[in-house]
Amino acid sequence: MKRVIECVPNISEGRDKAKIKRITDIVEKVDGALLLNVDPGKATNRTVITIGGSPEDVMEAAFQLIKKASEEIDMSQHSGAHPRFGATDVCPLVPVSNVTMEECIEYARILGKRIGEELSIPVYFYENAATSSDRSNLATVRSGEYEGLKDKLSDSNWKPDHGPSAYNESVSRSGVTAVSARDFLVAYNINLNTTSTRRANSIAFDIRERGRVKREGNSLTGKIIKDNSGNPVSEPGLLKCVKGIGWFIEEYGVAQISYNLTNISVTSIHEAFDKTCERALARGIRVTGSELIGLVPKKALLEAGEYFLKKQERSLGLHEEEVLKIAVKSLGLDELAPFNVRERIIEYVLEDRLSDSSKLVDLNLKEFAHETAAESPAPGGGSISAYVGALGVSLGTMVANLSAHKRGWDDKWEYYSEWAVKGQQYKQRLTELVDEDTEAFNQIMAAFGLPKGSEAEKEARKQAISDATKGAILIPLEVMKNAADSMEVMLEMSQTGLEASISDAGVGALCARTAVRGAWLNVRINAKDLNDQSFIDDVMNEASAYMSKADELESKIIGFVEDKI
Q1: What is the rounded CA–CA span in Å between residue 253 and residue 410?
Q2: Catalytic one of 57, 89, 206, 437
Q3: CB-based contacts of 282, cutoff 8 Å, min separation 6
């Protein structure tokens, strides 16, 4: 996989579409940087921008965006509901693939130094990139907001990490920028059937980690309780790693609770949603839906979908698209605007933007058949074997899902759900192998096309052909393994599953058996010209075990099916 980071600059402009476009267009002028998402908010007068790509390309795009924003946005004229202190208010870097947090911290430090030196914009590092513990919290760094910058910059304790430390005309226009390295932060707003900011804040204070100031008697009007040093005593909220405030959104005509979920492994989206529903109801208020700002990791919404499926006592063994639909509907993410998962989930957006070729599995049934029948050797028997195996275990998974819904079997839904989940896992891997088999064939063709003039070139070509051939053997071997192993689902369903669908379990077993035998033929034909007997012996022993397993399971499954029919 490529080295990929995400950058999520927040600019202090959410109303002027032309201005926002001029700023974001800069990103697409940087080769290798991808403008993944632009999410403006009128009431907050703020736009969340998501950039993806290699670290070097993303840093260049972020720098150019910050430069353009400082030219386009005059902070002395800015107002909005969201806390802010700069034209580019924050600029966090997030590791996505093959990049460590430590590397992201170093990238953030390099970017911040360049912003300060070349653009003369004061820079504060926060969260993981913070240079001192008292600057790790963004709320602390941003305290006083733009209006308090003059006093802040005159305070020696708040000297910027880079850039000018004196308030001047340039800083008056650009404000300052906070740069960080952090994990995925989910910006998540929950909609209420009230217009009261005070009540929305009260719910937010119940939930957020910092909680609220502790008072005597009435939690809203009682006397503030202080410690021995005279500092207010805080009463912590219900959820860790959650920041939150309430506000009124004029364009929607409702109050919202705006959360930052700083670690979704500690507090998930669905947990924040359910706890908010609970505390809202206690105050006579209803949650009507919610809103995600920017992009979100796929895992976060899949976990939400599974959470709500469990509450309904429904099988979890559904395709991820169905699980995501449940998440979107249950959280009310489409209440204020359509919610397209392909445009809002970071992995999908990166997949769509970084993919340099079309996939066989993305073709429809007719297109796949036409492509197979065309005058080209790929896709061939290996891809078809993998696909037949995916179809086979799909039938077994279907029986498990139907069994989980059978009237009178309500106490068994979790049992069948577990089998359906197993089936989905086998199906997912076999589906991936459809394209991997074709790619392995393409690698062989590429190796044969290497130059063979000099002795060094001949040796390199020979080695490349050997390596590619081994890859073309191991892929169908993995098809054999997954198809044979997947038959455990059909075996269980033929014994305990919905009897009306017993024949489907049988057909699934026949497909899986075909996948094993078909992949076996591909292993053998690709191995016949390989000059590595030890490798071949190991592969053949493993393949023979899969063949024996598939033969035995097919016999058992078809026997159970025939008896019940």
Answers
A1: 43
A2: 437
A3: none
The correct answer on CATH 3.90.226.10 for the domain covering 186-350 is no
Q: Give the tokens for residue 202.
A: 């009260």
Given the residues 39, 57, 78, 82, select the one marked as catalytic.
82
* C-alpha–C-alpha distance, residues 276 and 191, integer Å: 10
Cα 181 to Cα 64, 109, 114, distances in angstroms: 18, 9, 16
The CATH topology of domain 4-181 is Formiminotransferase-cyclodeaminase; Chain B, domain 1 (3.30.990)
Return the closest-CA partner of residue 129 out of 118, 138, 120. Answer: 138
**Cα–Cα distance, 221 to 225 (Å, whole number):** 12
Residue type, 363: L
b/e 508-547 (16+ beta carbons within 10 angstroms → b): bbbbbbbbbbbbbebbeebbeebeeeebbeebbeebeebb
437 in catalytic set = yes
pLDDT for the residue numbered 359: 86
Q: How far apart are CA 101 and CA 95, in angstroms?
A: 6
Residue 271 to residues 237, 239, 252, Cα–Cα distance (Å):
14, 9, 24
Q: Of 179, 163, 86, 158, nearest to 119 (Cα)? A: 163
Peptide bond between residue 92 and the one before it cis (omega within 30 degrees of 0): no
Question: Length of the chain in residues, anyone?
Answer: 565
Handedness of CA 520, 524, 525, 527 (dihedral sign): positive
CATH fold of the domain at 357-564 = Four Helix Bundle (Hemerythrin (Met), subunit A) (1.20.120)
pLDDT of residue 220: 62
* Cα gap 480→523, rounded to integer Å: 9
Domain segments of the chain as ranges: 4-181, 186-350, 357-564
Neighbours of 162 (CB within 10 A): 22
Residue type, 321: E
Dump pLDDT digits (tens) for 375-399.
888 889 999 999 999 999 999 999 9
C-alpha 237/C-alpha 358 separation (Å) is 48
Give the C-alpha separation, 543 to 547, whole Å. 6
Catalytic (active site) residue 551: no
Say if residues 238 and 280 touch (Cβ distance below 8 Å): no
Which residues have a Cβ under 8 Å from the Cβ of 514 and sit 6 or more positions away?
A: 385, 388, 389, 392
Query: Which one, of 243, 245, 104, 263, lies nearest residue 179 by Cα?
Result: 104
Please list the alpha-helical segments (H only) found in 449-532.
Answer: 455-496, 502-527
Residues of the chain with pLDDT below 50 are 1
Give φ, ψ of 395 to 5 degrees.
Answer: -65, -45
Residue (of 470, 397, 478, 395) closest to 430 by Cα position: 478
Taking the alpha carbons at both ends of the chain, their separation in whole angstroms is 49
pLDDT at 378: 81
Please give the backbone phi and psi of residue 468, each rounded to the nearest 5 degrees, phi first.
-65, -35
